[in-house]
Inverse folding.
């Protein structure tokens, strides 16, 4: 990305929370974009922007900000082709890009887009550039379809990221480059401990919210005894809304009947839950003494748990009468194998821990709620560093957990559609540093998994270095790890040497997620 060669002319342009609290709508969007370029995340500046505006302006501001971010690098290349000389002031570049977004993508009337953008430049005290801004925008306004085609022709990512994705996904590259520039669909996860997916879909109809049922099938080659493995099919149901909708317009949302969660993210809890059920169901089939069979108390770990969506989903499955860990089917009979489930969730940042508590409270899944419902579930949420944290504390045995869900830190390149600031904030160096962090966490958690247990490795990245290559490297360090294969009846993702990868190509499908399920065997 082009670097600004001059210091800001006005200190008021430095990113701070009060910058976006005054001025016209376009000025506030420009200042928000400048704050993002200076290192602030979209998540940290979006709410202050929208909360500072009248209701009638919020929709336009949101569309202008998000669309400019999604088309950022394509607009930069277009801008460079339109300017006779290099434009180094990022305030001027950002202002022009906001104008181009209005003309090319939002169909704002020419006179309004040009006039208001020029006035915005004056308001941020860059009046010296108004002639340049006016000339460029007027040139584009004469033939917007031509310049829109030019803008859409290639990718809208930093060159280093586009290059890496072409190396990783040569066959899917063109579709992926266009898919990442589009808005992502809104999905709902229905709390099946409260209602069925079909019943909630009908409730949406009564609220005049249209949604399609989405069914994902996951086939796993899970061990059924010490020497056999058979395919185990898991059906995950979710709802895809025809249009994004405010959560307060959804039936019983505040009461915990549903959550907003990407469809591919909804695969995590069913996968690790099913693997754990499988571990429990074979406890009496192994008699060689190598596999831990003391399942009166089951302990599970959600590592890097914030904001708590996957944890909540797992708790919903545990609480559900149909999928309870306390009753596992074996030989077509329901048997009691667990007396208590102890769940530990960790995350390294206190504010993110608070988000877990908030989300669980809305879903009636806090420790207090679980106790009130007489569920024999103990939930412990800990602020801790997953690279060093030890679940056993000072106890002699470090073999603690029957199952681990590791929603690993990653570059989040798979969710660029939802968080387009990622393409601006991430650097090539971040990928290497993130991969090292992932490895540290894996090497800390793996020794804490019981023999016979499962670890589900999840990222929302589409870079192989963080995903399949990370798994391949990890497995070279241990002789007690087996990668569970996904069988042919999976209707999502692309098969990898280890695990499966979802790509955000289809405008109706979920985000980019990677899944690998690891099984711990005897040494």
């Amino acid at each position: 990305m082009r670097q600004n060669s001059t210091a800001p002319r006005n200190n008021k342009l430095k990113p701070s929370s009060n910058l976006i609290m005054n001025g016209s709508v376009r000025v506030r969007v420009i200042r928000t974009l400048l704050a993002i370029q200076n290192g602030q995340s979209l998540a940290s500046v979006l709410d202050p922007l929208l909360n500072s505006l009248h209701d009638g302006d919020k929709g336009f501001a949101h569309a202008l900000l998000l669309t400019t971010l999604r088309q950022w690098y394509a607009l930069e290349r277009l801008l460079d082709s339109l300017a006779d000389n290099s434009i180094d002031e990022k305030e001027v570049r950002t202002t022009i890009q906001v104008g181009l977004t209005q003309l090319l993508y939002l169909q704002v009337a020419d006179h309004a887009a040009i006039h208001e953008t020029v006035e915005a430049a004056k308001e941020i005290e860059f009046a010296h550039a108004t002639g340049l801004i006016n000339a460029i925008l007027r040139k584009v306004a004469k033939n917007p379809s031509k310049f829109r085609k030019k803008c859409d022709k290639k990718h809208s990512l930093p060159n280093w990221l586009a290059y890496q994705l072409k190396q990783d996904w040569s066959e899917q590259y063109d579709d992926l480059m266009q898919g990442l520039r589009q808005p992502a669909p809104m999905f709902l996860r229905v709390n099946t401990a409260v209602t069925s997916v079909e019943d909630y879909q009908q409730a949406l109809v009564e609220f005049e919210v249209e949604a399609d049922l989405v069914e994902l099938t996951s086939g796993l080659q899970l061990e059924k005894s010490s020497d056999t493995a058979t395919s185990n099919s898991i059906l995950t149901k979710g709802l895809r809304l025809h249009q994004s909708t405010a959560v307060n317009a959804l039936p019983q949302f505040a009461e915990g009947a549903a959550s907003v969660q990407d469809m591919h993210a909804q695969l995590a809890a069913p996968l690790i839950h099913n693997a754990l059920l499988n571990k429990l169901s074979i406890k009496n089939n192994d008699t060689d003494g190598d596999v831990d069979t003391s399942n009166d108390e089951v302990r599970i770990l959600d590592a890097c748990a914030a904001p708590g969506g996957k944890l909540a989903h797992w708790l919903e499955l545990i609480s559900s009468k149909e999928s309870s860990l306390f009753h596992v089917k074996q030989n077509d009979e329901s048997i009691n194998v667990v007396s208590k489930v102890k769940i530990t969730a960790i995350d390294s940042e206190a504010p993110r821990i608070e988000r877990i508590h908030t989300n669980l409270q809305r879903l009636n899944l806090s420790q207090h709620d679980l106790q009130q419902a007489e569920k024999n579930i103990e939930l412990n949420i800990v602020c801790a560093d997953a690279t060093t944290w030890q679940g056993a504390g000072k106890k002699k045995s470090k073999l603690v957990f029957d199952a681990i869900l590791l929603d690993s830190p990653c570059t989040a390149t798979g969710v660029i559609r939802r968080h387009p600031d990622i393409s601006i904030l991430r650097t090539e160096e971040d990928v290497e540093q993130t991969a090292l962090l992932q490895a540290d966490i894996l090497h800390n958690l793996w020794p804490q998994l019981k023999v016979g247990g499962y670890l589900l490795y999840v990222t929302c990245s589409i870079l192989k270095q963080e995903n399949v290559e990370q798994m391949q490297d990890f497995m070279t360090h241990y002789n007690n790890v087996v990668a569970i294969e996904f069988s042919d009846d999976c209707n999502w993702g692309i098969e990898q040497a280890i695990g499966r990868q979802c790509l955000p190509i289809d405008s109706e499908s979920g985000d980019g997620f990677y899944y690998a399920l690891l099984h711990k065997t005897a040494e």
User: Anything to note?
Assistant: Residues 1-19, 287-294 have pLDDT under 50 and may be disordered.
